[in-house]
Each structure stands twice: as C-alpha cells, then as structure tokens.
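Exercise 7. Given the encoded structure of a 151-residue chain, write a plausible sequence.
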C-alpha cells in the first residue's frame, strides 16, 4: 500500500493491483448510476413515442393538454376549454401521458372529527370557541334544557 503514496514503485511490483481497483470502481459506478439512468430514459422515450391523437399529456412546465395532431417530432396540443388554443410542442417536453384529475374532493362533515375535544369539567377555564358553544347548544337541545348562549 505504501507504493500508492510514493511516486516511485518498488522494483518488481506492477501496476496491475492499482488498475484492478480502478476497474472495480468503474464497474460499480456503471451498475449504480449509468444503467438505471439508461433504463429510465428508455422508458421515457418509449412513452413519448407511443403518444397519439386524443391522448392527454403533462408537459415539463406543468400544463396539461390534449394532443390533436402529430407532425413528425412535434405534437399539436390543445390547452384549456378554448378550442382555438393549439400550441406545437416537441415530444421531449412531455413528462407523462395521463389525464388530469379534475374532480372536486368533498369532505363528509360527519366523518370529520373535531380537532379540539369537548371536556365538560374545564370548559370555563379553557374558554369556549364557537365549535364548543355549538356542541353545547346541540346537546342542550337534545336534552330539553335551556340554551346557555344567546346569538
């Protein structure tokens, strides 16, 4: 190992061990970095070449559009609801071929639990927020008691 640090190699030693270390390093580098990147690039190229008319695409700038025409390596993409906005886009600017999810998510109010719990013993100490007041009023209405809070 001392011959690696010195500029002169001892008599009778060869450069073979040092070249073997470099070869192992290059092989490990290939399997860790280069091969997976080539695999991803191949899948991306295959996806970009399979896009046809009528497909929804996600562009590299984050915009969704629908392909209306294919001319060589250029796709004519329609954006938005205005049918006259058609922009030519190169194939390599397409990140994914999927339709945007435009459904509105609604939250079922009965499934959502309140964030602050109602604890009857220390309500006056903590101070009541509007949700606590609402819960107390609903409970009193069910039990037939007189409401504590006036609106």
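Solution.
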């Amino acid at each position: 190992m001392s011959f690696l640090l010195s500029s002169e190699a001892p008599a009778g030693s060869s450069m073979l061990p040092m070249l073997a270390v470099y070869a192992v390093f290059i092989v490990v580098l290939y399997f860790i970095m280069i091969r997976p990147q080539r695999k991803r690039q191949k899948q991306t190229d295959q996806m970009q070449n399979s896009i046809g008319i009528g497909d929804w695409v996600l562009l590299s700038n984050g915009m969704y559009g629908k392909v209306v025409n294919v001319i060589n390596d250029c796709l004519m993409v329609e954006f938005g609801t205005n049918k006259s906005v058609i922009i030519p886009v190169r194939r390599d600017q397409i990140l994914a071929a999927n339709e945007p999810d435009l459904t509105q998510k609604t939250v079922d109010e009965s499934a959502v639990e309140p964030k602050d719990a109602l604890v009857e013993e220390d309500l006056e100490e903590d101070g009541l927020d509007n949700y606590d007041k609402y819960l107390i009023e609903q409970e009193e209405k069910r039990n037939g008691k007189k409401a504590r809070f006036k609106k």
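Remark. Helices lie at 2-5, 16-49, 123-126, 130-143. Students should compare their own answers with the one above.
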